[in-house]
User: Fold this.
Amino acid sequence: GGAYSNHLHAVAAAGALFGFRTVGIVRGEELSAENPTLKFCAAQGMMLHFVDRGTYRRRRDPAYLTELQERFPGFLLIPEGGTNDLALKGVTEVVPEVEAQMQGLPDFLCVPCGTGGTLAGLVCGLRGRAHVVGFSALKGAFLREEVERLLKDAGCPHANWTLHTDFHFGGFAKWNAALLDFIHTFHRQEHVPLEPIYTGKMMWGLWTLLQRGAFPTGSRVLAIHTGGLQGFPVGASTLSAQE
Assistant:
């Protein structure tokens, strides 16, 4: 992942908690003293292996993946974004947890999307009993095809999902002053911190849909906060608008 990857952070923490070795394949420069994510990963015992951008672009190349397995034998290789068949199975466990906490399922479950694994996993777990609404953090409609592929590979024929691709604010890790103002206001009013890469865009999109009357009156709508705050430990107030 990148230098602020949520998945590197989570894998490093899991390795320290459960006692297994971890290696992070990191795009970019060596460990920076200002990078809280990589500092945390190193402190948890993760071995950080840095690669240049040209090498990183080969991350889906079978030959390169074989090279990594040979360099780090005995490791389970987790793809960028953390999405694979095991990830979808893990996400399905969210469904009974939601059902127990809410004493029944909501009508709509909203999630931010990067690689589509969370959305696809929820669709599989719900088995048509509620509708999943995804908000893409990336520019482009290609993610819809990826989610369809994930569902097909997992044997989940359900069509109870929608993906919105028009709330990306220019692309992955892009934002502007309007989104930051929304995040600050939401935090102040609801006491729930957001970040501008995933959860902020989801909540902006959800708020916009609510204003448009996109959900039937009386619907129960659940927004799932997928984290990501670790990349901004001092709070979103330190962020500035991008050009």
